[in-house]
Amino acid sequence: MKTLIIIPAYNEAQNIERVVDNLIGGYPQYDYLVVNDGSSDNTAEICKKRGYRFVSHPVNLGLAGAFRTGMMYARRHDYDCAIQFDGDGQHDPAYIEAMIMEIEAGADIVIGSRFVTEKKPLTARMIGNNLIEGCIILTTGKKIKDPTSGMRMFNKKMIKELADAVDLGPEPDTMALLYRKGANIKEIQVKINERIAGESYLTAAKSLNYMLRMINSILFLQWFRKGD
Amino acid sequence: MSNLQIVLLCVSLLTVVSLMLKIKKSQFLIGDSIFWVFFSILIMIMAIFPKLTSLCSELLGFESPSNFIFVVFIFLLLVKVFTLNLGITRLETKLQKLVSELALKENEDK
Predict the structure, then answer these.
(1) At CA A177, angle to CA A172 and CA A183, rounded to 5?
(2) A68 interface with B at CB cutoff 8 Å
């Protein structure tokens, strides 16, 4: 399976070398692509200097835009599956092989989930996670144990869908919509590391806004969105 | 002529004058100006024919014509905000696509 690892990077100068070097050194069987999302630090310079495979947005689009550029790249270069991978080293590439096996077994989307066999801890963030899980059960009747996990792998069919779509970002509401449209979603247990350096896309202040957006999208707007 | 009529007339003339100035300097697309032309004509009608305004306001059950005028304005503004929002979404979608295309194209050229 031709596999692409998409690494959206916004001001990840402190992390990008560690993440990409780890991939190059330990996992040369996979291709990777850094999507530099208009970083204001020297993320682009580092990629250029080290000869990484990368594309650069001239302006900052946000995670959804970087994700979509990656999907467009995967589509044009005819990849069989593509995985969304954090630029800050939170995701462990050791799990990719197991995820590819699920895709080969017929899954459309494989989520690297923190809570397949592990129990969900009771923190503020996980209450939000539960709430989104509940909304997805309510609207699709199906259970995604870790809807907010950022580690997701997509097969060829999904790559096409995500590259062409206007408003399908790498978020739980997209999972719910694709689920309802008949996508086969699988979860495998992974361990996600804490950030070592740099700032997350999702700061604490944005969390409430994020929750409202997700609940609104999954519970109400989903029914009006284009389905098959 | 009541004070309200004078205010409405001034607003209408101001709208027309600013619109004309902007169009002259090509800072306004002709297509976008329809709303504002319509807007100023409506205000002018309200100013010149207060009887008509009162009649409409009574028919719709407003306590006073000024309330009716408020509601008409608010409604028009809401419509404008909604269509502006649509326009921004269109622009955003196009921008996202352009930025992605540009990034991918640069990569191919390398």
Answers:
(1) 100
(2) yes
Q: Are strands A3-9 and A81-84 parallel, antiparallel or unpaired?
A: parallel
Cα dist from A77 to A92, A176, B108, whole Å: 24, 27, 11
| pLDDT of chain B, 110 residues: tens digit per residue | 788 889 889 999 999 999 989 888 888 888 888 889 999 999 999 889 989 999 999 999 999 888 999 999 999 999 999 999 999 999 999 999 999 999 999 877 66
Range of the domain at A114: 3-224
Q: Is the pLDDT of residue A201 over 60?
A: no
Contact status, residue B30 vs residue B14, Cβ threshold 8 Å: no
| CATH assignment at residue A77 | 3.90.550.10
Question: Which residue among A54, A65, A166 sits closest to B100, beta carbon to beta carbon?
Answer: A65
Chain B residue numbers with beta carbons less than 8 Å from the beta carbon of A72 are 100-101, 104
Q: Distances in Å between the alpha carbon of A50 and those of A21, A23, A37, A46, B56? A: 9, 13, 18, 6, 73
Read off the tokens for A91.
Answer: 């995701």
Confidence of residue A200 (pLDDT cuts 50, 70, 90): low
- Chain A positions in Cβ-Cβ contact with residue B103 (cut-off 8 Å): 35, 55-58, 69
Domain count, chain A: 1
**Calpha distance A49→B43 (Å, rounded):** 63
Residue of A nearest to B105 (CA): A55
Looking at residue A37, the DSSP 8-state letter turns out to be -
A65/B93 CB distance under 8 A: no
Chain B: residue nearest A63 by CA?
B96
Measure in Å the smallest separation between the Cα of B100 and chain A Cα atoms. 5
Give the pLDDT confidence of A64-80 residue by residue, as tens digits.
999 999 999 999 999 99
**How far is residue A204's CA from residue A95's CA, in Å, rounded to a whole number?**
28
Asked if A130 is an interface residue toward chain B (Cβ–Cβ < 8 A), one would say: no
Whole-complex ipTM: 0.80
